[in-house]
Amino acid sequence: MKVNDGMNGFTKLKDTLSYKDESYSMMPTNVSDNYTCHAFDRAGKLHLCTDHGEIMICDHDGNLQYYLKDAPFGNRIECIYPASRGLVVAGVNGYIWSFEMKNFDYGAPYAKL
Asked: Are 74 and 67 in contact (CB under 8 A)?
């Protein structure tokens, strides 16, 4: 999946998604293309959030690396902040979620606290 379409901005995720890896096989096909916020971590990875509470992590080239299954589905995400030990995510109505970074070679890069 390519999120960045040259210099012209973002493409629709669901139109460009490819299931090349097992980690994508459990990703729903009805992913929202209404991105509400984004942030880059220190490694240059892009974290995208949607109005349906989905969090996607892309590499510096815009290729989808992971779809976070512990995301707060059904809650609009307004802000995401990659902190030194993980992610802090804020949603509507004052909700805040935190995710701790995991040091595994495979699987989810974050675990919901």
From this structure: no
CA pair distance 20, 88, nearest whole angstrom: 29
Alpha helices in 1-113 (DSSP H): 13-16, 22-25
Assess contact for 41 and 55: CB atoms under 8 A: no
Q: How far apart are CA 43 and CA 65, in angstroms?
A: 13
Task: Express each pLDDT in 18-31 by its tens digit.
Answer: 444 444 555 677 88
Strand order of the β-sheet with 96-101 is 77-83, 86-91, 96-101, 110-112
pLDDT tens digits for range 41-95: 888 889 999 999 999 998 877 788 888 888 899 999 999 999 989 999 999 999 9
Q: Which residue has the tokens 């139109």?
A: 15
- 71-74 long-range CB contacts below 8 Å, 24 or more apart? 72/97
Q: How far apart are CA 61 and CA 113, in angstroms?
A: 29
